[in-house]
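=== RUN LOG ===
request id: a7f3
mode: sequence -> structure
chains: 1
length: 897
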Amino acid sequence: MALFPIRSRALVAGGFGLLLVGWTVSLLAPGSRLGGELVRSSYDWSQSLVMGDFTNSPVVIVYLDMDSYQRERLDPERPWSRSLHAALLRRLTVAGAKGVIFDIIFDEASSNAAPDLEFARALRQNGHAVLAGELNRSNRSTPKTEGIELIELSRPAGMFRDAAGGWGAANLIPDSDFVVRRRFDRLADANVPSLDEAAAEVLGLPATNQNGAAWIRYYGRPLAIPHVSYSTALRSDEVGDDFFRDKVVFVGARPMTGRFMDRRDEFRSPFSAWGAQYLFMPAVEVHATQLINRIRGDSLRRPAAAWEIGLLGLTAVLSTLIWFRVRPLTGALLAVVAELGVLGIVGVTLAAGRFWFPWLIVSAVQIPGALAASVLYQSVEWYRQKRLLEEQRRAAEQKIHEQAALIEKAQDAILVENMAGRIIYANSSAEKLYGWSVGELAAEGVARLIAAPARVRFHEARQAAVEKGEWFGELEQQARDGRGLMVSSRFTLIKDEHGAAKSLLFINTDVTEKKRLELEFFQAQRIESIGGLASGMAHDLNNALAPILMGLQLLQKQKLDEETQRMLGVMEENTHRGADMVRQVLLFSRGRNGERETLAPASLVDEMERILRQTFPKSISVAAMVPGDLWPIVGNATQLHQVLMNLCVNARDAMPGGGQLTLAADNVELAEEEARQIPNGVAGKFVMLIVSDTGSGIAPAIMARIFEPFFTTKPPGQGTGLGLSTTARIMSQHAGFMNVRSEPGAGTTFELYLPCAVNPGPAVAKHRVPPELRRGNGELLLVVDDEQSVREMVAIGLTSQGYRVVSAPNGAEAIDWLEKHPGEARLVLLDTDMPVLNGRATADFLRVRVPALPILLMSGEGGTIAGDDKDARLSKPFALEELLRAVARRLAGRRSE
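=== RESULT ===
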């Protein structure tokens, strides 16, 4: 309401208040048709609010109805036999009725005197019977006069009037709608009381208070007063004396279909009924109701005219003051409360003081009128203020556009968003960044599409800007083509002249490429750190695995039972597997190419199939399909073995409930068109290796990230995220490429394309059957290693093949032993990484001092040892056969020299 001018609202409210006071007071004037209807309706509806309990009525009614005529076999066209009236009166006298009021006119004697005498005796014997007279009005015209109203009073016949306790006029005062609302007490000109007034005098009831008790109170809808049929009342076996005892009995006609000689007039009831326009009640019931009002003392009263005028004037003023101070919705709710309050006040007033007043003027005129006038005025004011605010908004937006024109050529994307979340301005840089035209950016929902990748963070940032005025930070967004963006964003809140939030200014700087370079730099640093860590881990792990592997192989040479041999084989296989894992980490961190040779792909697939059948769960069925004419390839057998193993392990993890794992190979020749359909594909001749499973598949949302280092969907502790990234690196080093096909729930297929050998020589398998090892002949070998377990297992292995062994824990002690025993050692086995003096420094020293002494270097870091030929190195962990073969080659080389 702060938008509305207070002074004009007060003037309008005051003027309408005066108008409402004058109008509502005028409704009380006698000539007001609307006012008269509201007054009568107020009275009628008040009856419903005070409808009382009628279980113990002091008055009962005996009706002359058609059923009585039929039972008594009387002609409805003829008057009722007065001997029957006498019989009824005697019955009521015996039953102990307090009084009997006949709402029937006995103004003439009948042709037969006997029934009249009988009825007169019954009246005299009762002593409390009251008869009815009637005041008739008629118009008569003569040639000299026109429309002269004649009033004629019909009195009971003299013999009946003298015998009865009293008599009164049975007239009533109906309104124009035929509802009797006001009491009729007496014919003042003729000094004749009304029927119920005469009954009150006979029964000894107090006189009526003429200063207010002039309105009838009804107790229910028609026929609510206890009643019986005339013929029923004559028969004591049908209605007992208790029904009449100590009760005032009214006898009168009940209107019926057909003709009827006695009076059968009726009036409309003030009560309404659903589905019925009118409810009528017999005149005798109206007379009975008036008498009950007198007996109970609960007639209704209406305040004096001065009081009503003051009350309506006050309510008119209050209605205006209240509804012109509240908003329309609040006013509507308040109007409902006020209407209920009026009903409550009416009910309390009727119950406490039996007052009624024209309250519908308040409910139907004042409250709705004040509400309607307030709504109309406030609607006009709202429209005027809306137009003003719209003009101000357009001016502010124009100002924003003018300011935006100054920075249209800025490199940053600049947008203005209204508080409803819709972009209302964007510069050309925003168009270039997001891919939508300037006009399209203002479309509904585009702002939500841009912020979709980080919707929650965007809304948090937006809320912070609204609350604090500004926000700085980085946000993930997306362009029209779905391309991800990283922007450095600044949000600024724009307010209107009243200080209310109007819009938000976004200045977004594209830092996507910067973030990508930072990520690559951090990733390179992490990989470099892993490389350094891996070197140290490799040395320690390989030193730990070397004695285990040789020990297992030495045990296998003993005559053990089959179960023990099988267990030793499993342990040896897992030792090789651990060594392969160390090599995989080194390969990923250092990117070493390794040694290359011409290989037969079929042997790689066959060996992998054998390993899978031995190690994978039985619920996974392994199948291999390899043709016999595969082209040879050039590569590192260990690395390619690792590629297949990585893919097979992933396939196994994708089939926790079992499934089908298929290995296949084939010769393919890709054309240019076919190669373009494969990522990084090139045309040429290739050997295609296939690893296919029927597992859970790969979701499209993560397909683009499966080759990222350290990306994994497996639970913590079950995956490193290096398997596929290592696979991709090995394929790249072999000049090959991959294609992946997968559907969620339908399995995954990896296709590996390896170039065939250009001038292929004979293809070799990864593992050839080694020739028979040459045993030693007592040669003395010096083993130098800082790990005692390695020294001991190497010594045991060499000694078992006929060599003699001495050992030293480091290079310094080895040199000291050689100087003390010159010429005794035939070969020195040196670990490359030892304390005091490492293997490389020791080898350099010995090549100078004892150049003829063969040296075999042992490395726990894997890979090729720089500066040595391939026969001069041994990578831990090594098998016993590898150790013996290397020793034999070095000794043979010395003998050949």
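=== NOTES ===
Residues 518-563+772-897 form a domain with the Rossmann fold fold (CATH 3.40.50.2300).
The first helix runs from residue 6 to 26.
=== END ===
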